[in-house]
Amino acid sequence: MLIRRLAAVTVLASAATLTAALAPATAAPLPLPPVHHAPDGPTQSLGGQLLGAPSEAAPDSLTVTVSKTGQAADQRTYRLKCHPVGGNHPNAQGACDQLDENTEWGKDAFAATPKNQKCTMIHGGPETAHVEGTWQGRPVDADFERSNGCEIARWDKLSEVLDTAR
User: Fold this and answer.
1) CB 68 within 8 A of CB 58
2) Maximum alpha-carbon separation in the chain
3) Tens digit of pLDDT for each residue in 124-165?
4) What is the DSSP string of 68-79?
5) How wide is the angle at C-alpha 164 spanned by C-alphas 121 and 131, nearest 5°?
6) Cα 163 from chain centroid (whole Å)
7) Sign of dihedral through CA atoms 125, 145, 129, 91?
8) Which tens digits make up the pLDDT trace of 63-76?
9) N or C: which end of the chain has fewer CB within 10 A?
């Protein structure tokens, strides 16, 4: 009986030692940080793999079409390039800065308002906008309007990109 207890204690001690030794290898991974572009180089490294690195082949490039009246005849179209900043957008640097501020890891900066979202029924004006191109290596094809409180907040989040009447 004493030998059985001693064997059980030895097994438990060995299991505890093994668990402690393996714990760091099986710990939950840390969340990834947000992707931010450096002005002239890669953004971050994950195990030596570069993520979101700007390159000549795939720059952050958007076409922004805005109408102050919501009518096609009143549309203005701008090109916006970021990393490096360029294009004919009237406030390219401010627009790129705002996009960088609103870019979070795993979230779409241009995401539409969820269909079941409850929004205040206020009208913010007839303005409409369409943004298409590439941002952070992902395709963008987004429409904006100011038809209710959610859409106004979504517009305001990217106001430097969309408010091009400067």
Assistant:
1) no
2) 94
3) 999 999 999 999 889 999 999 999 999 999 999 999 999 865
4) SSS-GGGEEEEE
5) 70
6) 20
7) positive
8) 999 998 877 778 99
9) N
